[in-house]
What we know:
With 356 residues, chain A is mainly alpha-helical. Chain A has helices spanning 10-38, 57-63, 92-98, 125-156, 163-175, 178-188, 195-204, 220-245, 249-257, 262-273, 275-290, 294-299, 311-321, 325-355, and strands at residues 65-70, 82-83, 86-87, 106-113, 116-122. Chain A is 62% helix and 7% strand.
Amino acid sequence: xxxxxxxxxxxxxxxxxxxxxxxxxxxxxxxxxxxxxxxxxxxxxxxxxxxxxxxxxxxxxxxxxxxxxxxxxxxxxxxxxxxxxxxxxxxxxxxxxxxxxxxxxxxxxxxxxxxxxxxxxxxxxxxxxxxxxxxxxxxxxxxxxxxxxxxxxxxxxxxxxxxxxxxxxxxxxxxxxxxxxxxxxxxxxxxxxxxxxxxxxxxxxxxxxxxxxxxxxxxxxxxxxxxxxxxxxxxxxxxxxxxxxxxxxxxxxxxxxxxxxxxxxxxxxxxxxxxxxxxxxxxxxxxxxxxxxxxxxxxxxxxxxxxxxxxxxxxxxxxxxxxxxxxxxxxxxxxxxxxxxxxxxxxxxxxxxxxx
Amino acid sequence: xxxxxxxxxxxxxxxxxxxxxxxxxxxxxxxxxxxxxxxxxxxxxxxxxxxxxxxxxxxxxxxxxxxxxxxxxxxxxxxxxxxxxxxxxxxxxxxxxxxxxxxxxxxxxxxxxxxxxxxxxxxxxxxxxxxxxxxxxxxxxxxxxxxxxxxxxxxxxxxxxxxxxxxxxxxxxxxxxxxxxxxxxxxxxxxxxxxxxxxxxxxxxxxxxxxxxxxxxxxxxxxxxxxxxxxxxxxxxxxxxxxxxxxxxxxxxxxxxxxxxxxxxxxxxxxxxxxxxxxxxxxxxxxxxxxxxx
Lengths: 356, 294
């Protein structure tokens, strides 16, 4: 007997699948295609000029990079000039005048190597700065958030009174919006009167302790990472919890019979059992880290000294605030490439686990 | 007896750890609520003391009355409520229907569509934001002027621009798909005997038996819609269609009263916290379930 659902009428199928598929097509896939097309144009959101095909100009403007070495200044006798900060180098203007091929390039990153200075110069130095910041943020937030989340999961996994209460407390920041979290933390990180520095002063007994968290370029990204870990750890905790509960209790019993202590049980039973969960948590935290925008927009506006400008922040500034859709889309496409690489990484990691 | 004593003793450091972490995680929100009831001077009075986290002697609702009178908060709350309600209702409908066709119907290309939906789950909204902006700038929207249908170009400064692009949600489709797949086929058989077509089967049998997954999808969609920030700052300029998150960001930029800022933040946060507490069990299950696909 042929069932009703044996081979369904195309009309019924499209009735059910159609609405969502059209929405996905128009609002997810079409924008991605449009973005790919817009990268080859000078399209602006509102512009009297017609949109023009400009080839790879957006890509060269975004990605052009020259690595150059700059020799320190020497005095008339040929000796190296020094000041209190060390060797003296010519200014970027002087360097650029001497080398016409560097016209339009500005330094994105520089470091001293022996008696030379290596400069990474780009036509859009802010893009490379934001790329470095984004990776730095991921590097800070990944161990922090995932480590805290695993610790929380191990704690609330104990059969103990009040664990539901604590689980709720740890999870509450996740449902709090990032805007609200950023505002509350802006207050807590206030240099003179903020809660965090007040506590630091009370603990250390030093009335001058505590950095200017959001006002110093060396601390701002770290402060945002701590705040982001606070907001997001509860989510990863629940994912870890589900992973922990899927590990058979017989494995623990067997390990205990073999004389394994708590630490050995953790290393030889819990960690291998959590393998896939750990991969998922690491990858989803990484994707979240690469999407960093709201905290930066609310707390620092990309500053101080561009130390918190991220790839998405740069894309929104170019594509929306400066209405340069072509260029913003180019950043988007490059960002999408990074996201694809990260999800590819997940596949590779999971496949390796499966082969074992 | 001694066993029990030993176990309690072992658990003590853990309990202390849980409490210490609980303090760290709860402090910012407790502080936000406490400060919202205080006068600005009182907020800064003794930050290192426990009284920062309780609305002490001088507490009042002055900050709350001030923000409702002096800002467009009621309008922003209404906008966010409409947006979230329509995203939840519409999203549950279209996503569950697609999931139904993927899990219960047979058609060509089904497997490919399922893989595309799963793949879409990893695309962050930030990737789509800029091209989506240029797309909605070119989309038409119908309007009526003196009884005549007119087409207005561009979706900016509206509620629909904040609703329609967020109805289809790959994660929700996947949630529904997993749930429908596990519904026993005997239910279908029974409906089939009664001569029910796919529509009757879906609306009379499948949906009424999908309470838990509907609740889960509702919570996920509600929280995402209520907490939208990047998209509304891009597509909404005036105040008429502004939702709460850009509203509080703007208030934060203009106000110098921390008491009022914290009251504003509390009002914006309470609805989501309430939804979360009310549906905790489903919510925990849904988040936990999202990791299983890993």
